[in-house]
Amino acid sequence: MSAEGDAVSDAIVAEGLVKTYGSLRALDGLNLSVPEGTVMGLLGPNGAGKTTAVRVLTTLLVPDEGRATVSGLDVVNDAAALRSGIGASGQYAAVDEHLTGFENLEMVGRLYHLGRKRAKARARELLERFDLTDAGYRPVKGYSGGMRRRLDLAGALVADPPVLFLDEPTTGLDPRARLGLWEVISELVAGGTTLLLTTQYLEEADRLADKIAVIDHGKVIAEGTADELKDQIGGERVELAIPDDSEWSVANTALNSYAPGQVRADRATGKLSVGVTGGASALVEVIGVLKDNGVTLRDVGLRRPTLDDVFLTLTGHEAGSESGADEGEGAQQ
User: Fold this and answer.
1) Per the database record, which ranges form the ABC transporter domain (predicted)?
2) For 209, which DSSP code?
3) Which residues of 92-105 are buried (b: 16+ CB within 10 A; e: fewer)?
4) Which value, to the nearest 10 degrees, does the dihedral of the CA atoms of residues 67, 70, 71, 77 take?
5) 25-29, 90-94, 292-296 — which one is most confidently predicted on average?
6) Is the pLDDT score of 304 beyond 80?
7) Hey, is 287 helix, strand or coil?
């Protein structure tokens, strides 16, 4: 966290947050800080505590222990004042399908007490910004999933909040719609918005986040830039394709002896990968180890780790292809 007097202060601070549901400890001493004007990406397996953290920080849940502030306001004691200074978009588009897109945005503006004239003007601005002008005066029930997600994000921006919380904003979108939202998010951050982003798409975090916090079992287990996290798990990886099924076990055993705990195996594709340091010289060593054990290679290559590698190494899970309910989702306080 930034010390008093630093040029950049923290827009979001969480200290020792705990949230339980019966015997389930959704947050277990979560600590987090997000400097103003930056993007923090929250990564973690389904059920790790990401959505619970966002709900606490947006005043939707009260923590059992710990404290948190957003823009200097306490999420419990200053909840009413805080809500007027943040925007939030959840995993599912929170729009009224019986209203038009324009009416949805105007309603949000009125709830923020923008006044009738300003609410209407802001609705028109956002419809244009999110490429929804042509559909803006049609009922939302006829919108595609991507259009609903864009409208939901537009709703989070009606009051032009300095701090924005996006909980898996591109879940369920096709690649084109996802890229479009990434562009909008990048524009917001370039304009000085502070963003806390949870995502199941590691490419999304790699592209958008200034820093990434990996959460598991309700606490932060690693934090840093994408490059720092990749370096943390071991500089590079050698990827190998083994064409002969009978040599698979021999190769796996040989590589585990060479680099214990750094081997990933995918029997279905016939591929192995092993964490190494030393670049090209390590690649030569790995090939030599397999040659000495009589293993034939179909293909071999050297690459830097991806966030997928980071995720799997730190959590023991691959990033889910589907979004699951977080701890306590739907639970009543």
Assistant:
1) 12-242
2) -
3) ebebeeeebbbbbb
4) -60
5) 25-29
6) no
7) helix
Three-state secondary-structure class, residue 22: coil
Confidence of residue 8 (pLDDT cuts 50, 70, 90): low
Sorted by sequence, the CB contacts under 8 Å of residue 285 that are 6+ apart come out as 258, 276, 278
Does residue 107 carry a pLDDT above 90?
A: yes
What string of DSSP letters covers 31-99? EEEEETT-EEEEE--TTSSHHHHHHHHTTSS--SEEEEEETTEETTTTHHHHHTTEEEE-SS----TTS
CB atoms within 10 A of CB 314: 18
277 pLDDT tier (thresholds 50, 70, 90): confident
Angle between helical axes of 175-190 and 145-156 (0-180°, round to 10): 10
Residue 301 has pLDDT above 50, yes or no: yes
Q: At the fourth CATH level, which superfamily is domain 10-229?
A: P-loop containing nucleotide triphosphate hydrolases (3.40.50.300)
Structural domain boundaries in the chain? 10-229, 234-304
Tokens of 6: 């630093």
CA 311 to CA 214: how far, in whole Å?
8
Strands (E), the chain: 10-21, 24-35, 39-43, 65-70, 73-74, 86-89, 163-167, 194-198, 211-216, 219-224, 236-241, 263-266, 271-276, 299-303
From residue 269, give the alpha-carbon distance in Å to each of 37, 52, 137, 263, 279: 43, 36, 50, 15, 24
Dihedral-angle region of residue 55 (phi above 0 means left; psi in -120 to 50 means alpha; beta otherwise): alpha
- Which of 3.40.50.150, 3.30.70.100, 3.30.160.340, 3.40.50.2300 is the CATH number of 234-304? 3.30.70.100
Show the tokens assigned to 179.
């890229």
Please say if the pLDDT value at position 67 is more than 50.
yes
Q: Count of CB atoms within 10 A of residue 140's CB?
A: 21
